[in-house]
């Protein structure tokens, strides 16, 4: 398949610019991949779509205040988007400026603190703090790294709403957005009906928003993201299988985490980077159902969803979502999908 096969027309006004007042108030488009049938529901209906034997797997990453504004010593302005904390004083980052900073140049933060350009790593800059740990600088000067399609500056409310309520491990520069719909009451409802919960970690990188530039998908170079799947999660998946339950992934990042850990054919504990590119033709080893938001046209995330629930059913569901004016992308509505019998079609 080609990149252009995953295009769809989206009116700009359907791109959610702010979250709803209540996390769990979103709409939910339910797609049965086996039959191709979809139905309009509400996120509040999620417990009715699950079975007490199911295992719900979340990504527990937390979003860093990863966007910094600085000035070059020559006077120009620079915008820094931290991609990864390498160690206490070193990061890799995207840097946007009128002229690309050279190695050895210094970027001055609003408080006078300095980040030195120490070189390049792949397409990223390596920045080193001269005075203190990067985490402290992010806390003091960092902004919530809202996606590029949210056309407004971040504000104080984004610090809380562009974050899941269960996130516990700092490291992401983009939210695992399917998890944004869960509030404490929903998690309590799911526990009350007996749905077990597990947590993996994948620190979402800014590369998640990078477009696929090659029309031939086999030539696309996937960005690397760090993840961890524990022995405990592997045991929970095995127990769910033994009791006849499904493994339900909350978000594409959870899907990629579990499928990376099962790359050998069997789910095993894993800690490290993944460049797994899931597209139609991929054979899923772990996931039976998934919850996800709506994704950008021609994106790797849309390709993943099509691989899981079938290309034709997913694209038809997206056309329906546009017609019914669902809210799209990070602060938008959600989908619940089950696996297609023949996802290549």
Question: Which properties best describe this structure?
Answer:
20% helix; single chain; 9-stranded mixed beta sheet; alpha/beta; 345 residues; globular; 6-stranded antiparallel β-barrel; 17 strands
Fold and architecture overview:
- By secondary structure, this protein is of the alpha/beta class.
- The chain has eight helices and 17 strands.
- The protein has helices at residues 46-49, 134-141, 158-161, 184-192, 231-242, 252-261, 300-309, 311-323; strands at 27-32, 38-42, 55-59, 61-63, 67-72, 77-87, 90-97, 106-108, 114-121, 124-129, 169-172, 196-202, 225-229, 247-250, 270-274, 289-293, 334-338.
- The strands form three sheets. The chain has a nine-stranded mixed sheet, with helices on one face.
- Helix 7 (300-309) crosses helix 8 (311-323).
- 41% of the residues are buried.
- The model has no long low-confidence stretch (mean pLDDT 95).
- Its main location: cytoplasm.
Quickly give the structural class.
alpha/beta
| Low-confidence blocks of residues | none
Q: Give the N-to-C terminal Cα separation.
A: 11 Å
Instruction: Quote the average pLDDT.
Output: 95
User: What fraction of the residues are assigned to beta strands by DSSP?
Assistant: 25-35%
Number of strands: 17
The helix tally amounts to 8
Largest sheet: 9 strands, mixed
**Helical residues, percent:** 10-25%
> What is the 3D shape?
globular
The gyration radius over C-alpha positions equals: 20 Å
Oligomerization: single chain
The SSE order reads: EEHEEEEEEEEHHEHEEHEHEEHHE
Give the strand order of the largest sheet, numbering strands 1, 2, ... along the chain: 2-1-17-16-14-3-12-13-15
